[in-house]
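Quiz preparation item.
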């Protein structure tokens, strides 16, 4: 029996690519069955289409009312028999209907060691700017459960990377993203195996 994963992504979908690569490894306990993006032109949707994975564009354009969008997402998750929802570079809040129906089964990968450098507005380069400004010697990636408040759910896995002398936002971001690309599939494999 397969453990079905849905991925929510807003842009290129590099973590989605890491997950689909991981799912194609021999003996993988999970498969990505659905990709949802709030950006109709996202690389994530294009990647899903290339692999024949179900895909959907859900946004304020397709569903002007937030509760409509939330219900539409939940219907899609149910229709695809999704066991786990992964938000990977998804820049919108997951709605209460999805969070209630999938309690404990929605996870996010965050480009810092939570609880530091998390919360509203802490995504992309803003996170790495915050790490460098704080003078942290270590950064990394965290996988945590998604709750109604940004980046406040329990952390279930993390991978550290050093902050090196002379690091820029770009050099740090590159190392952290590499950590995300191994941590996220490993975490999903662990969850799929129970």
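Solution:
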């Amino acid at each position: 029996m397969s453990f079905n994963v849905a991925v929510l992504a807003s842009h290129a979908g590099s973590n989605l690519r890491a997950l689909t690569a991981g799912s194609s490894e021999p003996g993988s306990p999970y498969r990505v069955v659905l990709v949802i993006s709030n950006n109709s032109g996202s690389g994530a949707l294009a990647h899903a289409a290339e692999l024949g994975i179900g895909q959907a564009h859900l946004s304020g354009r397709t569903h002007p009312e937030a509760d409509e969008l939330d219900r539409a997402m939940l219907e899609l998750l149910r229709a695809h028999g999704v066991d786990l929802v992964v938000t990977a570079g998804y820049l919108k809040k997951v709605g209460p209907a999805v969070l209630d129906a999938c309690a404990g089964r929605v996870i996010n990968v965050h480009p810092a060691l939570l609880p530091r450098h998390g919360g509203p507005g802490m995504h992309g380069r803003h996170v790495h700017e915050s790490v460098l400004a704080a003078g942290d010697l270590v950064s990394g990636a965290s996988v945590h459960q998604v709750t109604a408040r940004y980046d406040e759910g329990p952390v279930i896995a993390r991978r550290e990377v050093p902050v090196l002398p002379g690091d820029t936002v770009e050099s740090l971001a590159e190392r952290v993203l590499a950590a995300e690309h191994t941590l996220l599939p490993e975490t999903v494999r662990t969850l799929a195996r129970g």
